[in-house]
Design goal:
Strand order of the largest sheet: 9-14-13-16-11
Strand content: 5-15%
Helix content: 55-70%
Radius of gyration: 34 Å
Length: 944
Amino acid sequence: FIVYFSLFVVSLLFLTFSSIEFTLTSSDNPIFSQATLEGVDVDKRVNMFYLLVFSACMAFCILYVLSFLLFKILNLTPRQKNHLSIINVIGIFAVISTLIGLNSRSYAVILLIISLLLLILYSLFNKKPKLFSAFGKDTNINFILSSSILLFFGCTFLFNAYDCLYNNYIFVFLAIAVFVSAIYFFFHKFLSFNDSKINILLSSTAVLPFLAFLSFELYMYVNLNLNKFIDYKLLYLIVFGCILIFLFLFIILRKRNNYNTKKLLSVLIYPAIIINIILLTHYQVVIPQTEDMFELANPANAMMKIFAHHQIPFIDFMTSHMFNEQWTGILYNTIFGYNGGLDFMTYNFLNVLLLFLLSYHFFSNILGKSIYALLFLISFPFIITFLGNESFFVVLVFYAIMQLIKKQNIKNYFLLYVCIIALIIWRIDNGSTALFSSLVFTPLLFFTTKTKWKFIPFLKATAIIAAVLLGAFAMAFIIRSPEYIFGNLQSAFHYISSNQAHGYAQLAYTYTHQFWIYHIFIPAIAVLSSLFIIYTIRKKTYTDKRSFYILNSSLFFFIVFIFNAQRGLVRHGFMEYTETFFTSTFFLAFILLGTNLFHTINKSKRFIRFYASAFCLLLLLKFFPIENSNIMIQNAIVSPSIKNTDVQLKKDCIRSRVLKNDSFERAAFLDFKNFLDSNLSESQSFIDFSNTPMLYYYCQRTSPGYFCQNLQNTVDDYLQLQLLKHFDTRKFPVVVFSSYPLGWFDNTDGVSNIMRYYLIAEYIFTNYRPFAIINNKSIWTKKNTSFHWNISETDTLINNPPFFEYKKAAYYWGTHLTQTNAPFYQNVYYKILGNTNNQDKIKIPIPKQVSNISNLFLLLSINTPHEKHTCCLQLKNQEHETGGFRFDLIKGKQDYAIRLSNNYFWHNSEIDTIIIEKNKETEIKAIKIIKDNRLENQTSDIYR
């Protein structure tokens, strides 16, 4: 304990040296060097290093001796020392977090204040136990500290616009803590209130975060919907005062003297602190205008489809992350009403809140005390990474399986089914992980516990869930046609099974040793650890029920890691400078396994080792640099999300919860919206081919297709054909063809939208023409239709001949076309070429009857003796270049295919020649032109 305390104080003192500058002030012997040019004193840097090492050692020794003498006088009990040890250890890691870029400075100071306050309270009790008996119980101390924290955050709500609160947080918190302690002592000694009655009074502080949220929300509701104003602070104080008076009268008038208030801490007070911190870090009454024009389309377009077009989620449309990104907006718009704005984003914090409350319940079971779960969640700097981000929600399935193993009945089997289905609806990656993990973990649990499987309850529960699902489908068939439902289900299946469309070609830019640690050793550790756990449980070498629970939770999260690793293997991995999607729940599972080794020591020491090992594991294995930022509780203390909300709400008229950004609106969509409003009816809309799906929401126009990000989610030919069924030039007379100049979303992952969505591109080339540049977008309009707009700029890029890099795709398409005997592929031209050896260019004329046909593939039979050679094709119109292709060749005789008509000029000029450029040793055997008839009768109108 003395070591922890001394280290904490010394580390906090030396934290002040972390921002020292080594400026070169003068030099007796100036030297031309990089350090001199930049004004850096190298000797000062070296001297400071050794000075800090020596000073730290000396300070630690001196402080250790002084602390030893002081604590000997205070005569602290082992239990009191354990409590102080926990605070000091968390403080030490808070200082370390600050040094590595995760600022926890203010939190560390608060911890020091709490540590000193506990020392005072413990010493008072130890010296005069009868007089200060209230400070001798852990429950009472926890009530004092918890209510002090809640009151401190309550002051943040009341005085959110006062910088003096944030600048003097130390004195504010200290004053509140001393005040609460004094009140506790006063009520206990002079009013003869017993501990439980005072704790009930202090539990009233648990309502403060709810009151703060409700006061803000009621103010905004009255303002936005009724155009009136209320004093939200006065409402806050009045309601809190009424609750205090009610509790005071309750404990006076009720004859009962003793109440079990210990449960109030775990059920009410600690969750209230978590809620308060989430509110202060993720909740904003008024939010800034986001400039995201892509990712936000998932929830935003979903809101428009639900509330403006009266569509039903999953039946009529789908978002990438399912209900997880829809429910908060649905809740907000149901309460406040839909206005076509982004106000619903103010409720996004609810997802984070659910995650932390679920984690709190889990860690309360794992660590044995709710206070430890609270401390871990609010202070651990890598908490989101440790939980595996959104992956942690699968713990619901773990709960259901553990309940099932206790008692196999219809109810528990049904509960497991419901959890899996709910997670699939909640978020598809969570749901799929939960499904496969349960299919592995459940049989393993039966095996390790030697539990006999009861088939009858399983069969009955399966029949019930099947009946429920059939009933849900029957209701859907009543609302919509079966063909419509099954078509959308098939579209959803195509999207969620589209790893090939979303994946990167490689896993990392460079394959360093860290890459192999993550992708070889970590999975190997997970598998070997799982086998060890299975053996341990099977042989019953664990000690007690808690150990059994921890081992099973570790095994479950190892399995979750294995099944969830595909997210990091497809896209979100080292190529995006992140490892957390791949690791997901590995760190949690590994530390849980280690926790089982600590089961023989007391809970406080077990928590310290749990916290320290989790911190060190993540710090040592974290590969990509940690961004400089505040940890969550640091933000809650000195930079809360509601800071200066008073200033924002004092404006005369608040008609939106989004701070308007006029420059963004003018640059992003305003002119385009005016163009649509001037030329289109309310029922008409546009086709977005620029991958800017937020344009639909900002312009409040319907988006075609099943997906809210309709272009990006169109990942294969089937989905392109499905989307084309929705197109009608009368309903969609305008196309946003691309950004101007071209941006990343026009060429996602280096693949042009024209090439990736070739069927849709050819439909646009056939039916639309370039019109104007509006809001830095190339706008196309329906052919033979006039539109009114003052055109100041037109698309000149479209006149540049396109060049497509097919690389190896030409080989795969060629193999597919030659091996597929589909009725929708029709040969329209075939030519066997003579001896093409010793020719590096081959000129092939295109018959006029072929050049007038749309939707064509060019199939080439090529024989090459070389590896890693390429072949180039040029399309020409009377010697004018109109486009080109290049693709890689595979050694030997192979077939290659390119989409010949996937070119603006093919549809708007006469292309009469193909020129093939190749190596002289490469032989072109034959060419074939194939018509793709899949587009015939797939759209309501095709321009001819």
